[in-house]
Amino acid sequence: MINKRFFKTKDEVEVTFEFPQESVSSSVALVADFLDWQPTLMKKVAKTKSFKFKTRLPKDQQFEFRYLVDNERWINDPSADQYKANGFGEDNGLVNTY
Length: 98
Description:
- This is Isoamylase early set domain-containing protein.
- It comes from Vibrio marinisediminis.
- The chain is mostly beta strands.
- It has a single domain (about 1-95), classed as Immunoglobulins (Immunoglobulin-like, Sandwich), CATH 2.60.40.10.
- Helices cover about 0% and strands about 55% of the residues.
- The protein contains no helices and ten strands.
- It has strands spanning about 1-5, 10-20, 30, 40, 45, 50-60, 60-70, 75, 80-85, 90-95.
- The strands form two sheets. Strands 3, 4, 7, 8, 9 and 10 form a six-stranded antiparallel beta sheet that branches.
- Strand 5 (about 45) and strand 6 form a beta hairpin.
């Protein structure tokens, strides 16, 4: 799931990526172009039984991302704004900040 918070006075958008715990053994990493494609571990949140990562991204842009579950499975977010072929025979999710 993706939640976006737009600010009236700033040129950035707060984006929260959330992944459910139910299909995870140990970890979920967010892998995205705005993180230079380096897997970044998401925080496990017991209250919501999910993994979360919050960041601020520039307004009026589009970013590619995927989740890496347990260091072995690539998963797309069903709530991504769009999908784009990634050159590896699969798709990356896209998140828009406009």
